[in-house]
Amino acid sequence: MSRTTSGLTAVSSDDVEHIFETRLTSGIHVLSEYIPSVRSAAVGVWVRQGSAHETDSDSGVSHLLEHMVFKGTERRSASEIALSLESLGGLLDAYTTREHTSYQARVLDEHLGKALDVLADLTLAPLLSDNDLELEREVILEEIAQVQDTPDDLVFEMHSDQLWQGHPYGRSILGTKTSVSQLSSDKLRQLHQRTYRGNNLIVAAAGNLCHEELVEAVSRLFPTHSSDVDDVSSVAEPEGIKHGDAFVARTSAQTHIVFGTNVPGHCHPDRYPLALLSSALGGGMSSRLFQKIREKMGLCYSIYTYQSFYSAAGISGVYVATRPTTAQAAVEAISTELSTLAASGLTVEELDKTKRQVKGQVMLSLESPGARLHRLASFALHKEPFVGLDGVLEKIDAVSFEEIQRVAEMYYSPDHHFVLRLGPEAI
């Protein structure tokens, strides 16, 4: 099969990151990183299809399809899929997000070809039978029920639904009981035929491997053509975001509270100052919120900041769980910290400390082939040029005191946040 190939090499101060990419004539994007110091490989297939590409009536179809491909293919039964890599000491897993679906395997380097064959079989040739659908539908309904019984998961679902005010980013990845109950095998087949092909596919691998051998295997195992596929449409920017407060009554021992506001998408340059601000505010035991709300006030056991960056927008916020009698005090204390951060940003010393902390976390997070695999896929998914580890560290170091002040003022005022409480009424 004819193909175009380009090699991207990022040079670090003490080593070379061996990164390569190839775009096949089918449209499939193939990336790899050669890591000679390991004897394993992580490989994955990403599909540009997630819950944000669905409608309300077919909500959850991407996630259900992800489950269904494991129920059997033309060549393997469900049990044979389960044994295919586990019998070799490997791992096989999958997940669905708002903008993509992913299937990954981790194996010894000598079994990379087998892992890629299994992944190709799963993604291109699932049976999607009616009998399997009825069984797996029940599994998904149990998963939805599990979220309903887990308030620290449910509060994020409810918060997203209300914050985005009808935008696809607020739609549940799992779907609803109603939508999942109505999904048909024909709907799954149509989605699979439209999206699990060509330009919508990314195949990436990291570990002790040869890029040219990977490309040859992908060319042979993924025989799709661009004409077979509809490009998944981009997600529109949100037009309106909810602010203020909301309360949902629920019997539980704690009140679960989520603050959240919209921020720019993944490719926006403000992502780096936002990451630093989030870390300083609630990224660990030394963060402002942990020291104030837990250590000094004793209002909670768990409190942290979170961020997610999608293509068209992102979300940044705070989560805390506390007893109903102390929920108001926790909300007020968090709001005070947000106001202080918005007004004053970080001190020079705090900014320097946070940069060291975040750079250390980035470097430690990339010590496994699995983590490097997800880094590779992230650049392709967001259509960004590859930036090596040194490049990322330089971007973090380049964030200025003035940028921190500007971004803090723009996004961290409590007036910009929507606050949702889930739990009992305060006594």
Description:
The chain is an alpha+beta fold and 427 residues long. The protein has 15 helices and twelve strands. The protein has a seven-stranded mixed β-sheet with strand order 1-2-3-7-4-6-5, sandwiched between helices. Strands 8-12-9-11-10 form a five-stranded mixed β-sheet, with helices on both faces. About 2% of the residues have low confidence.
Main pleated-sheet profile: 7 strands, mixed
Number of helices: 15
SSE series:
EEEEHHEEHHHHHEHEEHHEEHHHHHE
Give the strand line-up of the largest sheet.
1-2-3-7-4-6-5
Averaging pLDDT over every residue, what do you get?
A: 93
Number of strands: 12
- Point out poorly predicted stretches: 6-15
Cα end-to-end separation: 70 Å
- What share of the residues lie within helices? 40-55%
Decide which structural class fits the backbone. alpha+beta
Shape: globular
Strand content: 15-25%
Q: How large, in whole angstroms, is the Cα Rg?
A: 23 Å
